[in-house]
Request: fold
Amino acid sequence: MSTTQHHFISRRHTVDDLSAAQEWFHSRKWSDGLPIVPPTEGLVAQCLDWALLAPDHLIGIEPVRERAITAEKVAINAVMAGCLPMHFPVVVAALTAMLQEPFVLHGATSSTGGCAVLVVINGPVRLEQQMDPTFSVLGASDRSTTVIGRAIRLVLYNLLDVRPGEVDRSTLGHPGKISFCLSEDEENSAWLPLAEERGVPHYASAVTVMAAGAPRQIMNEWTTQPEELLNTYVAEIKASMRHYSIWPGNYAIVIPPQLREHFNQAGWSKAMIREYIFEHARIHRREWADCGKGAVVADKGDREHAALPSPDDLLVIAAGGPAGGFGAVIPPWFGKTSRAVTIAIGACVDCEI
Amino acid sequence: MTIEFLDPTHENRFGNFALAPRLATLENAVVAMVSNGKKGTIPFFDTLEETLRSTYGVAEVVRITKSNYSTPVETALLGDAERWNALVAGIGD
Reply:
């Protein structure tokens, strides 16, 4: 129970029972179609207490619509999504990252391109919250990552009106819009965690957010050579450049244990993987003509396009179940219009001290 | 047993925008148009410009284009705004 008396500004509503609460939320498009946990004052207060945040704490401002995102409203939506108090600081961190200018939150969440917000979690918080970075890691592998990802979506719904057909103008969208969150398998990886590679101190918990298309699964069980394994990832990235977008941006790749073992045996680091993919994931503009886009090749057919602006723009994530020569490529929403952002959980950006 | 809960929406507490004062006429006005830069907006704005000039007597149409269609217009592009009577901004695809 909360020990702090908070002053909430949100309107209060009363319904007869749990069933009526569900219909209340669904009929107003306050939910994503799944049942919600009614955000009672007590549950919301517990979230705020856990994170040591006052209700009016400003998490950030979405600049296009000039919407202030406060801890109170985020906590309400987190409770609805099924979050426990311990999940709330992760949700706050993810939203803080999304509200940083390079992420371009309004564009990423309103675009016809239909991306979702990929959230990658690093650090001790993964173990505290029993996140599971192994089996079915891209498909609701555990309670914590599922509800954290869903909380992000409900915040977008209710605080920024990013509902399908409203601010969300996605032509198709993808299933990651329900929840698109995973943790990295740091314990079973010889590599630096993603967040540490991106500047967060060792042992700090952190989130990385990326405006991302749907994951595309690859398979290669017929080699142990790192270059050949990476050529399979590169083939998928190049396919995305041909049939979706040629513009360079952040890509994420997920490497499960069976493939990681081959890289480890050969002494390959994440940095070496990033460098290899940066060098090889390139196509010529004329290749667009092979997939029906000849009209936009014009006289620029010999121009080479790299998938990544730099090697650092590849997010390499160690995750996945123990068996299977599979992997995944997660493409960007649209080139470098939006950039991935990493911040430590509990870090205060632009705080007044 | 009843359940009392808190409202999850913004409740229109933030970001309330007021409409700019309406012009009585566009005759001899200077009208600026902000394009998001998408190719498909060009014929749309061409038609709008022609309509403003031929039907409404607009004296000058100023066309400005954002460098990134997903972000707000750059302040530098609005440097001449004081001399505009109206500004058209919207969504094009």
Residues 32 and 62 of chain B are 4 Å apart (CA to CA).
